[in-house]
Amino acid sequence: MMNNTPKAKIGIVAVSRDCFPESLSVNRRKALVAAYKAKYNAEDIYECPVCIVESETQMLEALADIKAAECNALCVYLGNFGPEISESMLVQNFDGPAMICAAAEESKNDLSDGRGDAYCGVLNASYNLALRNVKAYIPEYPVGDADACADMIHDFVPIAKALYALKNLKIFSFGPRPLNFLACNAPIKQLYNMGIEIEENSELDLYESFLKHEGDARIAGVVADMEKELGAGNKKPEILSRLAQYELTLLDWIDAHKGKAKFFCIAGKCWPAFQTMFKCVPCYVNSRFASRGIPVACEVDIYGALSEYIGTVVSDDIVTLLDINNSVPEDMYKASIEGTFPYTHKDTFMGFHCGNTASSKMSSCEMKYQKIMARNLPIEVTNGTLEGDIAPGPITFYRLQSTADAQIKAYIAQGEILPVATCSFGGIGVFAIPEMGRFYRHVLIEKNFPHHGAVAFGHYGKALFEVFKYLGVKDIGFNQPKGMMYPTENPWG
User: Fold this and answer.
1) How far is the C-alpha of 284 from the C-alpha of 238, rounded, in Å?
2) pLDDT tens for residues 160-206?
3) Half-sphere exposure of 432 toward its Cβ, with a 13 Å CA cutoff?
4) Domain CATH number, residue 42
5) Cα separation of 84 and 102, whole Å?
6) pTM of the model
């Protein structure tokens, strides 16, 4: 993958209330760091050795130290009760995501001089953070021994990466949404609220740049790379040079326009005029960008691109964007799912898009033309889709969305892609999510989510939920289990 996601470097700063032995925090910090390095990547963390923070002065010393060490995230570790003012000011003044965890008591044989009272300290820390309107990630159960706290910090790594990345992200969009795609409504106020930059461009600007790339000396090299990737699936070789020209256009646009942003994603135009002007569709190029960690959302779906990017950082893997598209036929369900997998018919659906899913996430794929577009246009201008069944395995279907009145909300649902032949076209898979039917009605429809959903290839609901919560999203829907009713669900069925 391209270098479009950050690495986490979490500065661990231990704190201590001055009426407790400082050695409690020192020794517990050392044990925590040793436990983390024994279990996980040592480069994820930095142990602040300057001091144990007991005062505002020491807070400033610790802050300077972790900044000098280029930490992009912070863990405030309560080795004992901790000074709620100084530790809260540390979070407040650190320019990045922060978490709080605390030491559990170690032995019944040392509950006199060795008792730290950090269980109590987290309460005071959380209260003081609230007084200052400061956010911090606090694990579900934030108190533990060295191993448990190491696990908490490890859980924080993808959350910290995502939050840091969003503060350094620029979204490039090209063109207004296609007609009848108001469902991808994208008021941009919430992007600025989250610290994200957006550069909105005309598709005419993009087309002008595309024309200037005609005959680019690099096209042959990109075509060769495409041929290698597609192999026997290269069914439309005549279109590769145009796709390569488009790929170089986007890469050069990013390079020229990224400004201070460190990371980027794209919400691109793909129809209806795209085909007749560019003489291709961009789906395969979009899939190649996703393979490099640069999501490209279709149909100028700005929040789809943002959702994909968050999943890319959290999962450290490729993501895709799909329509929550069509139901599974009854005969397919009975022949291939019922009795083999633990899902009802209403738990299943098909996720589809024209051909933007990366080749490495497909069971098999071929370069083809776009069947839906070709119903209204000459086939030769709809070439460029990467079609086939998406590979089976665990997935997380999710989205972060701004409503028409600029309210932010989200949903997350974990499930899987089933090893069932779709018998259809496009980049497509048979999905199963427990209680999908109810989730579809009382979250997706009830809360006016659009048809596009981001797909991460694995179960990442826990980290995504914490990222959305840290961003201030109050409404995070999920596929509630049977017996747990939605507010709008009819109790009589």
Assistant:
1) 14
2) 999 999 999 999 999 877 777 766 767 899 999 999 999 999 999 99
3) 18
4) 3.40.50.10940
5) 13
6) 0.95
